[in-house]
Amino acid sequence: KAGVTQTPRYLIKTRGQQVTLSCSPISGHRSVSWYQQTPGQGLQFLFEYFSETQRNKGNFPGRFSGRQFSNSRSEMNVSTLELGDSALYLCASSLTAGGAQETQYFGPGTRLLVL
Amino acid sequence: QKEVEQNSGPLSVPEGAIASLNCTYSDRGSQSFFWYRQYSGKSPELIMFIYSNGDKEDGRFTAQLNKASQYVSLLIRDSQPSDSATYLCAGQRYSTLTFGKGTMLLVSP
């Protein structure tokens, strides 16, 4: 079974631009979560989608948004990029959502550099 | 602020030794705890999870949970140089994982 895939793998943008990242979950998984990883803050939860609905959201500004499609694929968008948005963006998928012991499997990540 | 705390390390152990990685958490509502391993430049990969007090073994790995002390640990027996990585502890509440910043483990041949 194929794992979580993310595109693109690397991205360079300039301040003020916007970016869209894509994530395809493991086949059969319906929940997709997004995380931002930086050296200073570590891995931080952005948001989680299940059945095309955002179920949980982390403490990030409104410039960060996402959506999920009927085939469970998800996109996240960052508008008006800032230098501090440079990070590794990770997508994780799980079978369902909200259950204890629900394992999340991570994709390879998209490394975003904002200049 | 719900936090998961880990010593950043590095924790250095010789090949064949037992590596002990620790984590404390503040959210008593956390339902399960996960250990992920992350190699430099790669994404986190799941090692194991635990949700009941006590020990859980999986091959060379043993996870331990003490909810009264809000403490989670991971023991790696017979450590190998290939185990050198950053180990991330995460607490799960519903579908949200809260991660510690990770402990770097270095296993020397």
List the helices and strands and how they pair.
The complex is a heterodimer of chains A (115) and B (109).
Chain A: E1 5-7, E2 10-13, E3 19-24, E4 31-38, E5 42-50, E6 53-57, E7 64-68, E8 74-78, E9 87-94, E10 105-106, E11 110-114
Parallel strand pairs in A: 2-11
Antiparallel strand pairs in A: 1-3, 3-8, 4-5, 4-9, 5-6, 7-8, 9-10, 9-11
Chain B: E1 4-5, E2 11-14, E3 19-25, E4 32-38, E5 45-50, E6 54-58, E7 61-66, E8 71-76, E9 85-93, E10 96-99, E11 103-108
Parallel strand pairs in B: 2-11
Antiparallel strand pairs in B: 1-3, 3-8, 4-5, 4-9, 6-7, 7-8, 9-10, 9-11
What does this structure look like?
- The complex is a heterodimer of chains A (115) and B (109).
- Chain A has 115 residues and is an all-beta fold.
- Chain A has no helices and 11 strands.
- In chain A, strands 2, 4, 5, 6, 9, 10 and 11 form a 7-stranded mixed sheet that branches. In chain A, strands 1-3-8-7 form a 4-stranded antiparallel sheet, with no helix packed on it.
- In chain A, a hairpin with a 3-residue loop joins β4 and β5 (42-50).
- In chain A, 37% of the residues are buried.
- Chain B is globular, with a radius of gyration of 13 Å.
- The mean pLDDT of chain B is 94.
- In chain B, the strands form 2 sheets. In chain B, strands 2, 4, 5, 9, 10 and 11 form a 6-stranded mixed sheet that branches.
- Chain B is mainly β.
- The chains are: A mainly beta (115), B mainly beta (109).
The fraction of residues assigned to DSSP E strands of chain A is over 45%
Mean pLDDT metric of chain A: 94
Apparent shape of chain A: globular
Mean pLDDT metric of chain B: 94
Helix and strand string of chain A, N-terminal first? EEEEEEEEEEE
Number of DSSP strand runs of chain B: 11
Structural class of the helix and strand makeup of chain B?
mainly beta
Helix content of chain A: under 10%
- Basic shape of chain B: globular
What's the helix-strand series of chain B? EEEEEEEEEEE
Query: What's the alpha carbon Rg of chain A, rounded to whole Å?
Result: 13 Å
- Give the chain pair forming the largest contact, with residue counts: A-B, 30 and 23 residues
Which spans of chain B of ≥5 residues are poorly predicted at pLDDT below 50? none
The span between the termini of chain A is: 37 Å
Rg of chain B, rounded, reads 13 Å
Number of helices of chain A: 0
Quick one: biggest sheet of chain B?
6 strands, mixed
The share of residues in extended strands of chain B comes to: over 45%
Q: Enumerate the spans of chain A where pLDDT stays under 50 for 5 or more consecutive residues.
A: none
The helix fraction of chain B, in percent, is under 10%
